[in-house]
Amino acid sequence: MGNQVETLEFQAEARQLLQLMVHSIYSNKDVFLRELISNASDALDKLRLAALVDKDLDVDTADLHIEIEVDREARTLTVRDNGIGMTRDEVVSVIGTIAKSGTAELLRAMRESADAAARQELIGQFGVGFYAAFMVADRVELLTRKAGEQGGTRWSSTGEGTYSVEPVDTAPQGTAVTLHLKPADAEDNLHDYTAEWTIREIVKRYSDFIAWPVWMTVERPGEDGATTREVQTLNSMKALWARPRDEVDEAEYHEFYKHVAHDWADPLEIVHMRGEGTFEYEALLFIPAHAPLDLFSPQGRRGVQLYVKRVFIMDDCEALMPPYLRFVRGVVDAHDLSLNISREILQQDRQIQVVRRRLVRKVLATVKDLKTNHAERYRTFWTEFGAVVKEGLIDDAENRDTLLELVSVASTHDPAEPTDLRGYVERMKDGQGEIWYATGESRAMLENSPHMEAFRAKGLEVLLLTDPVDEVWVERVGAYDGKPLRSIAKGDVDLDTDEERQQAEAEREQQRKDYAELLTWMGGALADSVREVRLSSRLTTSPACVVGDAHDLTPTLEKMYRAMGHEVPSVKRILELNPGHPLVAGLRKAHEQGGDQGELRDTAELLYGMALLAEGGELSDPSRFTRILADRLSRTL
Fold first, then answer.
1. Which residue from 27, 47, 279, 534 lies 20 to 30 Å from 464 (Cα-Cα)?
2. pLDDT higher at 566 or 36
């Protein structure tokens, strides 16, 4: 094998990320060792799995371990494993670039973050822990050989923008990462990472739960003054999920969470459970305190880690957690599954489906307990994950009733405090049969919508739903506690009591007669845009509004379906006019007197355009609308 050294440039975003990490102020640089040990542990897990799946793979898995080696004179620290190793192409792909979605978003968020703790959280979210080595090292070298292959690869970089890669004829199986350490600097929280007790303390704090032994050769003075050397195991290797909860303290849970979630913050809630009977398993799950940046990314993480009898099987096991709980992190250790089980088999496995149902019920019960007994923590949870949890109202009919009790949304009842559906029902007025809601982009837009006027006048509470998923789940659910969910922008809305309706009937009948010709004419003039023009009972101050029939798709839903590639017919809506508004009354009078048809048509278009804009809609021809409006305004000057 030739000894050709290639010098390559880091991917642009990787280079920026390196600079941010190296030159930013971090309160805790010790985490670099946790990240390197975690990477080594993953490599050992992968080798064990590869050996189980591929019986022809010629590797020895009897003595898998992680080794830390220190050279105090050369000031180097090496973390070595005899795991799966990497090929040359994998080294360039994994180390030379960051093949993660959302890296640009990470960089932007880091630049905007003012404090070091927040930056650490962002780094943790994207799993780029290897780069943390450059916080403590002037140069990093990596020597690796893929299991089952002959030659190895050496990688080296100072983190300044380039790295070198060269083939090597002989290399031990696995990966060794050697850090040429910077001088210790107490003011910069840069410890002496060649000191035994510093390393021992970091491993104990961060990596005590690693399933593989972490070895280090230590020196001790002998009886005759000679120095003796012995290999010691630094970690306990106890699987945290297999220990009773009363034997695990909070700090251990928090450190384990940071390992499996690649997060730098403590979890919001811990779910530790054990399943016994015909199918035994242990689960240690965590609800994070903040949403990851890739929560809504199709390439984002999904699911929890799956082990079988403490042997790692797969990361991000989607079969164990539904998509609407994709933020849950943790470990499920099943006792009776095959080690060769695949993702496809898991999707069909009846035992896995049983475990999944139990995990979901336990997580939802934990969230319900937060809502009942820990209001502030529940508020944090719903702020971070409410939009995702509401997806379950669409897909998870089995747990829909439980999810409905968890829903927390804004309403007109209180400008600051959200409400749940139970609270809304308890505040319903006598004779009110529906739960009224409005959907849109923002609370301010909804509160100022013409559709809200009659409800404000009657003092009726309206739920203000501003997440895109709200458009779907309210239609799918349909009702809560026997009360139908109704949109204030759909169908006929008549909020009068029987007595008020009787008193106003004569006036309404007269209005229908007076406006019959105008409504017929406007229906024809706007036939390309609207299905019908009618008088409104929901407007008090605005001249017009646009509504849909009870079962029509909303404009927002139309956009969502088209964005997903679905062909949906364009839905014509209904234009409602306020007969008490001077503009509408003036238009009727002008029409009766035989006014200029072009002028009247322009006024009708203006009314329709204003109604669309008032609800946050989009004009089909903005330039025409502004041209007509400018012409009308110029005549008033």
1. 534
2. 36
100 is in an annotated binding site: yes
For 397, 534, 604, the CA distances from 546, given in Å and listed in that order, are 33, 10, 13
Q: How far apart are CA 292 and CA 179, in angstroms?
A: 30
Q: Is residue 493 part of a domain?
A: no
Instruction: Give the amino acid at 444.
Output: A
Q: pTM of this prediction?
A: 0.70
Is 343 assigned to a binding site?
A: yes
Nearest to 485 by CA among 397, 392, 393: 393
pLDDT for the residue numbered 126: 36
Residues 185 and 46 both lie in one domain: yes
If one counts every other C-beta atom within 10 angstroms of the C-beta of residue 462, the result is 23
In a domain, 511, yes or no: yes
pLDDT in tens, 298-325: 777 788 988 877 767 788 888 899 999 9
126 known member of a binding site: yes
Q: Are residues 269 and 288 in the same domain?
A: yes
Spatial contact of 483 and 434, defined as CB atoms under 8 Å apart = yes
Same domain, 161 and 276: no
End-to-end Cα distance, the chain: 87
What number of other Cβ atoms are within 10 A of residue 580's Cβ?
Answer: 14
pLDDT of residue 554: 79
The neighbouring-strand residues paired with 254 are none
| DSSP letter assigned to residue 146 | -
What's the confidence (pLDDT) of residue 240?
Answer: 87
Sort 179 into a burial class: Cβ within 10 Å, 0-12 / 13-18 / 19+: buried
Is 125 annotated as belonging to a binding site? yes
- What tokens does 251 get? 């700090």
Round the average pLDDT of the chain to a whole number and report it. Answer: 86
Q: How far is CA 521 from its chain centroid?
A: 50
Residue finishing a domain among 176, 196, 222: 222
What's the domain count of the chain? 4
DSSP state of 398: G
| 579 vs 351: CA distance, rounded Å | 64
471 and 514 share one domain: no
What are the tens digits of pLDDT across the range 99-154? 343 445 555 655 565 554 444 444 433 335 688 888 899 999 999 999 999 899 99
Name the DSSP letter for residue 514: H
Is position 130 annotated in a ligand binding site?
A: yes
538, 617: one domain: yes
Two tokens, residue 417: 């405090």
Residue 579 has pLDDT above 60, yes or no: yes
The closest of 100, 88, 200, 198 to 142, measured between CA atoms, is 88
Task: Tell me: is residue 82 an annotated ligand-binding position.
Answer: no
Answer yes or no: is 279 a known binding residue: no
Write out the residue range of the structural domain in which residue 330 sits: 240-386
39 marked ligand binding residue: yes
Quick one: pLDDT band at residue 68, thresholds 50, 70, 90? very high
459 is annotated as contributing to ligand binding: no
Is 175 labeled as ligand-binding?
yes
Q: Is 455 annotated as a binding residue?
A: no
35 is an annotated ligand-binding site residue: yes
Last residue of a domain, one of 452, 487, 522: 487
594 is in an annotated binding site: no
The answer on 274 and 250 residing in a single domain is yes
**Higher per-residue pLDDT: 106 or 485:** 485
- The reply to whether 31 and 175 lie within a common domain is yes
- Number of C-alpha atoms within 13 angstroms, CB side, residue 469? 16
* Neighbouring C-beta atoms of residue 72, cutoff 10 Å: 12
